[in-house]
Write a structure and sequence with these properties.
By secondary structure, the chain is an alpha/beta fold. The protein contains 11 helices and 5 strands. About 50% of the residues lie in helices and about 10% in strands. Helix 7 runs parallel beside helix 10 (about 240-255). It is elongated and about 75 Å long. It holds the Pfam family HTH_6.
């Protein structure tokens, strides 16, 4: 069995070969993946209603030495962004814990940003000939939103990749007079290092935004901004990253008040002329 498979995938592949008691324990594990990192073998046995020997036998069938290895596996899955676990059926979400984590993520993001990095990023966003915003997979929505907000106050803001296209088309003519914002959050396609290195090699200054897993690529960036996305739920939360988008775009607007007002007025005029917005 491939060791790269997570425990849920391993259970899926082996389920038909498990004994009824092993299936019972496997069912409990699948229903409680989010809590797996805190259960001992004894607790798993008690909660699933089987013997500890059954749990140990199941772990070995799945390619694990013991419960400790399973706990470490579960922790590594969540830290890499794999959406494991969830709220048990019928249970209500712990909104208080969710709020605490969201506020902590936002505080860490903005504390890490600070006035100096914000000024550096703003300068790149307003003084560059063009700005290309890059987002792949989970990062695409963030890139799209930043592009739309920046475009309110300045021309020459591009989104990459365009549907059906690759990154190269967008950077063939870019150089030190331009800027790039690259979102690099975890669970991204392979090759972010090559992407940011290639953009930087053209002389294009990069604002790199990501969670801690993207910190290794900060050497290629003119500005590195870390946004925690940890969540009490199985899914990552991008609230701090979306707040950062608001901060960057708002500061870019404020840095060019006359140009921004002129452009916004022209856009609003077209909205009215084309009847595009419900006001």
């Amino acid at each position: 069995m491939a060791t790269t498979l997570n425990i849920g995938q391993r259970i899926d592949r082996s389920y038909g070969e498990l004994s009824p008691q092993e299936q019972r324990a496997a069912d409990f594990i699948l229903d409680h993946l989010g809590d797996l990192a805190i259960y001992s073998g004894t607790e798993l046995a008690q909660r699933s209603g089987v013997s500890k020997a059954t749990v140990s036998r199941l772990f070995r069938r799945l390619g694990f030495e013991n419960a400790q290895e399973v706990r470490e596996h579960a922790r590594s899955l969540r830290s890499s962004g794999v959406p494991v676990g969830g709220t048990p059926p019928g249970a209500s979400a712990d909104l208080s814990a969710h709020l605490v984590r969201e506020v902590e993520n936002l505080r860490r993001c903005l504390d890490g940003l600070g006035p100096e990095r914000l000024e550096q990023a703003t300068s790149l966003l307003v003084r560059s000939r063009s700005v290309t915003v890059v987002g792949l997979r989970n990062s695409y929505a963030l890139a799209l939103h930043l592009r739309e907000q920046l475009a309110q106050g300045r021309p020459g803001v591009h989104l990459a990749p365009q549907p059906g296209q690759t990154i190269a088309e967008e950077f063939a003519e870019r150089d030190a007079r331009d800027a790039a914002v690259v979102f690099g959050f975890r669970r991204r396609p392979a090759g972010l290092a090559r992407l940011v290195a290639g953009i930087a090699a053209r002389g294009v200054p990069i604002i790199l935004v990501g969670d801690a897993s993207a910190r290794r690529y900060a050497e290629f960036a003119a500005v590195w901004i870390e946004c925690p996305i940890d969540s009490v739920s199985p899914l990552d939360s991008y609230a701090s990253a979306m707040s950062l988008v608001n901060v960057l775009a708002s500061n870019a607007l404020a840095a060019r008040p006359r140009e921004s007002r002129t452009r916004i007025a022209a856009i609003n005029g077209l909205y009215e002329e084309l009847g595009e917005l419900e006001i």
